[in-house]
Design a protein that fits this description.
Elements (H helix, E strand, L loop, with lengths): L1 H9 L5 H11 L9 E4 L2 E4 L1 H9 L8 H15 L5 H30 L10 E6 L2 E6 L1 E2 L2 E2 L2 H8 L4 E7 L5 E13 L2 E11 L7 H22 L4 H8 L2
Antiparallel strand pairs: 1-2, 3-4, 5-6, 7-8, 8-9
């Protein structure tokens, strides 16, 4: 630990206070992705730390010289010797370069370590939806959205997809549009089915699933409406 702090000080990385907080953060075993582990004064990289290290070759953020220069620039800005907007523009360019470099490093890392070797990045479409830029997956249920369909989705329109195949081998169609969704605590914009194209084409599995979902939603609404009526609430929850 002392050696690491000396190196950070030598390279002018952070201040005394920030070095301590950064070290505490990267060695916190309760963090979602801890980078370092410390046991009896010995520091080792965790699996996440090893993977992060594999992303750094040839990046600006991994260059200690760049880090030293950024610290100097921040002091110059505070002292009024440098323009903040001009320096931020330079940093923005560095970040853009690093993103592309890390993508290449990530591909090499997966190959070297056999991590997600069969991973294929999903094709995305970029556009403007509800007045803000969005990027969403260009495939749903085996159907690839055409340029025209993507433009309609970005315009807030519903589209119809026909020719989908259910698990039982029957053909059906659906209607859907873009919506803001959440998965594992992460919000994103993606295609959401709002209904079926026609009652004749609804797959059997889809009907039962929809019925169950509607029933659950109905029960939740009933329970919510009765939440302030203790006696009736006890009755209905016991049914």
């Amino acid at each position: 630990m002392k050696w690491l702090f000396k190196q950070l000080e030598k390279r002018d990385v952070g201040t005394g206070a920030t070095r301590t907080s950064i070290y505490a953060e990267v060695t916190n075993d309760k963090a979602k992705y801890p980078l370092l582990s410390e046991k009896r004064g010995k520091i080792d990289m965790t699996q996440y730390g090893d993977m992060s290290y594999g992303l750094l070759p040839n990046t600006h953020i991994g260059d200690l010289g760049i880090t030293e220069n950024l610290m100097k620039v921040m002091r110059d800005i505070a002292a009024g010797k440098a323009n903040a907007d001009a320096e931020l523009a330079k940093v923005k360019d560095l970040i853009k370069d690093d993103i592309e470099t890390m993508k290449a490093n990530g591909s090499k890392l997966r190959k070297d370590k056999g991590i997600m070797a069969d991973f294929v990045e999903k094709e995305k479409f970029e556009g403007v939806w509800n007045g803000r830029p969005v990027k969403f997956t260009r495939e749903w249920g085996g159907h690839r959205f055409s340029d025209e369909e993507c433009e309609k989705l970005c315009a807030g329109e519903e589209i119809t997809i026909n020719g989908l195949i259910s698990k039982k081998g029957t053909t059906y169609g659906i209607v859907g549009q873009l919506s803001e969704q959440e998965y594992n605590g992460r919000k994103y914009v993606g295609f959401e089915r709002t209904g079926f194209a026609s009652t004749n084409e609804v797959p059997a599995s889809g009907v039962s699933m929809s019925s169950r979902l509607l029933r659950r939603k109905h029960l939740r609404l009933v329970r919510l409406s009765l939440s302030r009526v203790p006696f009736l609430r006890k009755v209905i929850l016991s049914m």
